[in-house]
Amino acid sequence: MKTQPHAINWFEIPVDDFDRAKMFYSRIFDYEMPEMQMGPARMGMFIFDQASGNVGGAIVKVDDFLPSRDGTLAYLNGGEDLTAILMRVEDAGGRVLLGKTQITPEIGYYATFLDSEGNKVALHSPK
Q1: CA 67 – CA 60 distance, rounded (Å)
Q2: What are the tens digits of pLDDT across the range 113-126?
Q3: 23, 92 contact by CB (below 8 A)
Q4: What is the β-pairing status of strands 41-45 and 56-61?
Q5: Are 79 and 85 in contact (CB under 8 A)?
Q6: Can you tell me the distance from the alpha carbon of 115 to that of 83, in angstroms, rounded to the nearest whole number?
Q7: Which residues fall within 8 angstroms of residue 93, CB to CB, at 6 or more apart?
């Protein structure tokens, strides 16, 4: 198999209450999450530079896709420093599981939280 430029092409985070989840992610990332309908799925899009070939994702409300804190862990881009986003998690209805933690000086930092739907999600930033 040929080496690919990215290990991930797209990700989706399942939600039970779409409006609550959209408000949660809009609050922690401090932007109004764009929304679209794709077949039976209601989707809230994370902002990313698609024209540059970057990877994006969405929150998704569809009947057969359920939130969980077990399973695959998505690392969302925390910008230059994930601290500001992490500080908004609890006020938005989530819970910080692991505060800002250094991986290595070269790789940067990460943190984990439960979103408003009970999904375990991570953040990553260089500082």
Answers
A1: 10
A2: 999 999 999 999 99
A3: yes
A4: antiparallel
A5: yes
A6: 16
A7: 20, 23, 24, 116
Q: What is the 3-state secondary structure (H, E, C) of 58-108?
A: EEEECCCCCCCCCCCCCEEECCCCCHHHHHHCCCCCCEEEEEEEEEECCCE
Q: What domains can you pick out in the chain, each with its CATH number?
A: 10-125 (3.10.180.10)
Residues in the chain: 127
DSSP state of 45: E
Mind listing the pLDDT tens digit for each residue in 6-49? 778 899 999 999 999 999 999 999 999 999 999 999 999 998 88
